[in-house]
Amino acid sequence: MFPYYLDLALRSFKRNVALTVLMVFAIAFGVGASMTTLTVLHVLSTDPIPGKSHQLYFVQLEPRKALGARPNSEPLEQMTYADSQALLRAGKADRQAMMTGGNAAIEPQRSDLKPFFLRGRWTTVDFFAMFRVPFVAGGAWTAEDDTRNSRVIVISRDVAEKVFGSVDVVGKTIRVEGNDMRITGVIDSWRPAPHFYDLNFDTYSEGDQLFAPFSTSRDLKLSHSGSMDCWEETPDSEVLGAPCVWLQFWVELDSKAKADSYRTFLTSYSEEQKRAGRFEREPNVRLRDVTEWLEFKEVVPRDVRLQTWVSLGFLLVCLINTVGLLLTKFLRRSVEIGVRRALGASKRSIFFQLLVESSMIGLAGGILGLILAWLGLWAVRHQPTQYAALAELDLPMLAMTFLLAVFTSLLAGLLPAWRGCQVTPAIQLKSL
Amino acid sequence: MLHMKDVSKVYRTEMVETHALRNLALEVNEGEFVAVTGPSGSGKTTFLNIAGLLEELTGGDYLLDGVDIKKLDDRARSRVRNEKIGFVFQSFNLIPDLNLFDNVDVPLRYRGFSRGDRRKRIEGALERVGLASRIRHFPAELSGGQQQRVAIARAIAGDPKLLLADEPTGNLDSQMAREVMQLLEDLNAQGTVVVIVTHDPEIAARAQRNVHIVDGVATDLERAPSLVRPTRAAAGPST
Amino acid sequence: MHFFPILATLRRHRTTALLIVLEIALTCAIVCNALFLIGDRLARMDRPSGLVEDELLRIRLTGIGTKADDKAVTVQDLAALRAIPGVKFVADTNMVPFGGSSWNSGISTIPDDPNGNSAGIYMGSQDLVETLGVQLIAGRDFTPEEYVEDARGTAPVPSIIITRAIADRLFPGKSAVGQKVYVTGKEPQTIVGVIEQIARPNDTRAGVDLAGFSVILPILLPYTMGGNYLLRVEPSRRTDALAAVDAVLNKVDPNRIILDRQTFEEVRKDHFKADRAMAYLLTGVSLALLIITAFGVVGLASFWVRQRTRQIGVRRALGATRGDILRYFQLENLILTTAGIIVGMALAYAINLWLMQKYQVPRLSAVFLPAGALLLWLLGQVAVFGPAMRASAIPPAIATRTV
């Protein structure tokens, strides 16, 4: 019966082209707008490090003075230099890394290339293994380099190609802020979106382009970039004992049990610091994994979420619109439906026939809606927002477009099809 | 074959109760050709709707070809309509954007016949009504009489046991009306039970048996007089 | 006129009537909120910075490596930039209104106040106030003696200039000049001047009611710490001045990187690009919604005209004029639209409450409701006009036709 219903649907469309086109467009616009915003939302909410997002944890401690303490407050969102160093040395997790953002000027030592400015990361060796940073040449520095302030550096492939014209540059030196640093590795394009490990920057922008050992960055007085929060006046905020937080500390723990015991360790560390007089407040630690951390920081921009709701509301109106138009379309054919019923069609047959007609409109609307969504995402990509480049339709979103369109039209068709099949055979037959 | 006893049909709205049929009794046997007559508002249209399973009865019994209609749900009733009954309407009711082939095809589709089977039946039916040559034409291209013949073809394509016609010649001129009636008589001769609802005494006269419905009650008329006066009918045998 | 008969007719076509009312209600609710949000965003984008925006250029730069002589170079830079034709004043500074990155500190009338409000702290070279062009409403600019050379906070900072917003909050009803506040260091700063306004580099973290909380401190910064040079130029000579900056700075010291050269208008535009995009999106969606609803009304009205063709013919046969028929359908549409609008308004408020809670949107101001209502009434009447005209054209002869 399905091909028969298909044929009947097509004939019905030909009979009233204007109405059909209107309905297809209404669904297409609703689906196109919704899929554009849903794709952006999807792209911005994906797990940035699938497979490991429940093994990487962000550490938070509460080092502030008693003055100003409020009950049930959140501890600070970054770590002090002293605490990071202490936790690193304690080594109680499978892996751990302390880090901060930084800026550095690269001097290519070429007459045709002027010095340029890059954002980088000052961190410790475990960073690369923890975050699965992909290398195209060489590798990270060693644990000893961390302690010896070695002049070593890891750069991105874009930088390598810009300065040296190739990625085969392991062992070469590059001049950073006036210092010669030896390249130990070149990483492939790496742009975790959002770059969850440090949310002080535009969350979806370009990744870090160069990495150096944290201790080296202190030794060379490389500038820090990010957010600095001091709870007391201090002459130098970047010194070891300063009352300021500006570092991020991540640990890798591959089981829930390990996470629980690390949390206990953090609490006892806080108590120890309190006894020593450094911390003044009650231990207030947090150990959130990547997903929890992103949720807590509400990483997806408020505007993106708002836009998604707006377009879903739009889709709702399109749906109701389609219900109304389908209802008129089917009720107009009361006579024909009455004849078919008299000739032996059951209510169910009529119901399915009309439902097939609705889903055909949905399919056509889906195809058009896909084109509109593609156009919408093209427009988003040309916006000057930080996540512009990420706005692309992937396979799951593509499938979802069609499903949404067909589902919407099926839903819209339910009431009209039900009303259509209720047409009693007897009453309609006398009058035309 | 068609057995109605004590059939009543009541239409209820918020304020008014209309008794369209009251204790109607009727028996139609195999091979009969019955004309149902009566004044407007008498209930003959309601009788047709009930006979054709287009409406449900309020009270009484109706057995069609041995099957008790009251026990059937919508699905089963549609099946019976589809397999056992053929309809011919006053206003033809052909679907305008289907050609003749597809129009005759409609009931067969709901029957579940194979493609080849349907084709054979459609061509056979249109042959019987003499319109096989116009098989790919559309209703708008035919005259009134021809359209009605297509409607008849549609009604018989599934080999129904009962043919119900509601004023089949009402919209036709006398020449075409005669042709259509001839066709119906031929079909009856070949074994189909034919029940026609009509107000035209000439048409009624051609039927083998006349039933008169007044105020919801059916009365058989032994002969079909050319002019039927209501008083005479009331004086006849009552049920 | 025909009010009750119309209602009776609509009751018979309950489902389609309800659908239209629902569609109009939803459209009204969404459009009211959209218009309101657009207005809110436009107001945000129009916020005054407090500066002479059409005269300002902003240069962002950084040094390479550690510089021993950066203070001296800064002085030379400022002199060289001042010499560019058309330039009236030059200053270096640590941040710029709508510029993005921000330095903040707590401000209070008592020392070590844990409940101090956060204020943006501007600092730089001596001509900063003149360069910014901020309007002084009380007191004076800093004197050269009040400037402190040490940004690291070891030397006490004696004076401060605050904005009107801070003055009103901390010293309501009295003059703020001469009062003391604690912003940096152990010693308080004395307020020497109050300016009308200087916007903060970013408002989002501090919250809307602290948007006007900024101070200027007389702390001299070398460009390597501040990172910004501001030039106040005659409006017509801005392009030339921008073009000349690179050469001028390279002459003083080629060993650094100039990251950005913008007019202040470009700075503002960049900062509000998200708001602009949102405003565009909301406008587009509102328009699309109105068009779709209009078509829905047309479709449904056409259907009803068709269903009631015989009725209309009968009415005309009984003496109704074409105008009567037209007005009948217009009135019917008005009733439906009004019902939709009433539900829509309630829905609009509900949506706004939800938005307020989840997305910190301000409360919907009442003026948008009549605006939305008017829009939809107009839309409904325009949409129903076509079908209503067709209805009025139905000939009375239809009444006698049987087939």
If you had to describe this structure to a student in words, what would you say it looks like?
The complex is a heterotrimer of chains A (432), B (239) and C (403). Chain A has 432 residues and is an alpha+beta fold. Chain A has helices spanning 2-15, 17-45, 81-90, 126-130, 143-147, 157-164, 214-219, 256-276, 290-296, 302-331, 334-342, 347-381, 395-421, 425-428; strands spanning 56-60, 95-107, 116-123, 135-138, 152-156, 173-176, 179-187, 210-213, 223-225, 229-230, 244-245, 248-252, 286-289. Chain A folds into 2 domains: 2-47 and 301-428, no CATH class; 62-284, no CATH class. Chain A contains 14 helices and 13 strands. The two termini of chain A are 27 Å apart. Chain B has one domain (31-42, 74-235): Rossmann fold, CATH 3.40.50. Chain B has helices at residues 44-51, 74-84, 100-111, 115-128, 144-156, 174-189, 201-206, 230-235, and strands spanning 2-12, 17-28, 33-37, 59-64, 67-68, 85-88, 162-166, 193-197, 209-214, 217-221. The model of chain B is unreliable at 224-236 (pLDDT under 50). With 403 residues, chain C is an alpha+beta fold. Chain C folds into 2 domains: 3-46 and 273-400, no CATH class; 96-220, no CATH class. In chain C, the strands form 2 sheets. In chain C, strands 3, 4, 5, 6, 7, 8 and 9 form a 7-stranded mixed beta sheet that branches. In chain C, strands 2-10-1-11 form a 4-stranded antiparallel beta sheet. In chain C, helix 2 (14-45) runs antiparallel to helix 9. The two termini of chain C are 32 Å apart. The interface between A and C is large, with 51 and 52 residues.
The SSE order of chain B reads EEEHEEHEHHHEHEHEEH
Distance between the termini of chain B: 20 Å
Radius of gyration of chain B: 18 Å
Count of the separate structural domains of chain B: 1
Q: Biggest sheet of chain A, in brief? A: 6 strands, mixed, barrel
* Shape call of chain B: globular
Read across the widest sheet of chain B, the strand sequence of neighbours is: 6-7-8-3-9-10
Shape of chain A: elongated
**What is the percentage of strand-forming residues of chain B?**
25-35%
Oligomer: heterotrimer
Name the helicity range of chain B: 25-40%
- Taking all residues together, what is the mean pLDDT of chain A? 89
Broad CATH class of chain B:
Alpha Beta
Number of strands of chain B: 10
| Biggest interface, residues from each chain | A-C, 51 and 52 residues
User: What is the average per-residue confidence, as pLDDT of chain B, rounded to a whole number?
Assistant: 83
Amount of beta strand of chain A: 15-25%
How many alpha or pi helices of chain A?
A: 14
Low-pLDDT segments, ≥5 res of chain B: 224-236
Q: If helices are DSSP runs of H or I spanning 4 or more residues, what is the number of helices of chain B? A: 8
Number of strands of chain A: 13
